[in-house]
Amino acid sequence: MGTYFYRIESGKIRELRESERQHRNNKIASTLYRKYENAMIVGEKMAGNEFQVSKAKILLVKGDITEQGTDAIVNAANSTLMGGGGVDGAIHRKGGPKILEECKRVRATEWPDGLPTGKAVISSGGNLKARHVIHTVGPVWRGGTCGEPELLAEAYLNSLRLVVSKGLKTIAFPSMSTGAYRYPIEKASRIALTTVKEFLEKEEKLDKVVFVLFTRHDLEIYKKAAKEII
Ligand code: ADP
Questions:
Q1: Within this chain, do residues 143 and 33 fall inside the same structural domain, yes or no?
Q2: Cα 47 to ligand 1 centre (Å)
Q3: What is the pLDDT of residues 91-126, one digit of tens each?
Q4: Whether 39 and 61 share a structural domain
Q5: Shared domain check, 56 and 28
Q6: Which residue is closest in CA terms to ligand 1's atom 13?
Q7: What sign does the dihedral 49-52-57-58 (CA atoms) show?
Q8: Which of 11, 55, 64, 149 has the highest local Cβ count within 10 Å?
């Protein structure tokens, strides 16, 4: 991937245009150079976190999925859709009771026996910044020979299909299955990134896919995998 340069403009990080990059590189044009020299510092921090696939960007960030302002965020749910720990607990706590009410309706109508592993459903975002939540169930790790890779890919794929079918443009994923479900993150990250990349290559309707990693350690694992895969 190329090197990206950014600068802060009105409190937002903005990528430098080509002409601005040239000013940054041209130390003789000193006023403009000074204006853009800080861009490099921000750029270096960002490098390796952003990847382009066809028309869409894949971003890797360290953070909390419940804080994301994407059109949809993905919940690492369990098949009951009634809430739980980890990402699931955080989304229901911050999103409020509306999300649970909608999940109960899904259970009563579409999936009375629970949402099967790999499938995805949508609810509103309740009090969250994101207007929609995609609830999907990743596989529990049982050593890797019980169809876990295929089921994990299905969970990502069905979430992506669902946001596209609703006309949404941006989506944020947590690292599915790598918490309570104990999927080794080195393996899971490769499946996550490969599935998203292949989807974006075929389907050009999304603008941005964000992976929100909870720890710096998890972020580094995703970055390493992304450099190899994307
Ligand atoms: P699963 O049951 O699919 O393993 P978990 O919610 O237990 O799902 O964990 C999935 C990943 O999400 C883990 O790496 C965990 O550290 C991380 N995680 C937990 N809370 C959050 C959060 N609020 N935002 C983003 N990631 C989170």
A1: no
A2: 24
A3: 999 999 999 999 999 999 999 999 999 999 999 999
A4: no
A5: no
A6: 179
A7: negative
A8: 149
Which residues are annotated as catalytic? 88
User: Which of 65, 214, 219 for mutating ligand 1's site (highest number of atoms within 8 Å of CB)?
Assistant: 214
Q: Are residues 167 and 194 in the same domain?
A: yes
What is the residue range of 93's domain? Answer: 49-229
Report the mean per-residue pLDDT for the chain: 88
Q: Are residues 137 and 70 in the same domain?
A: yes
Q: Is there a single domain that holds both residue 171 and residue 68?
A: yes
Question: Are residues 31 and 114 part of one domain?
Answer: no
Cα(171) to centroid of ligand 1, in Å? 16
Residue 126 backbone phi and psi in degrees, to 5: 55, -125
Residue 33 has pLDDT above 90, yes or no: no
Q: Give me ligand 1 centre to Cα 25, in Å.
A: 42
Between CA 182 and CA 184, with CA 183 as vertex, the angle to 5 degrees is: 105
> Do residues 177 and 141 lie in contact, with contact meaning Cβ atoms separated by under 8 Å?
yes
Number of domains present in the structure of the chain = 2
pLDDT digits over 118-163, tens only?
999 999 999 999 999 999 999 999 999 999 999 999 999 999 999 9
Are 146 and 67 in the same domain? yes
E strand segments, the chain = 6-9, 12-15, 50-53, 56-62, 72-76, 120-124, 132-136, 170-173, 208-213
- Ligand 1 is surrounded, with C-beta below 6 A, by 64-66, 76, 86-88, 90, 138, 174-181, 212, 214, 218
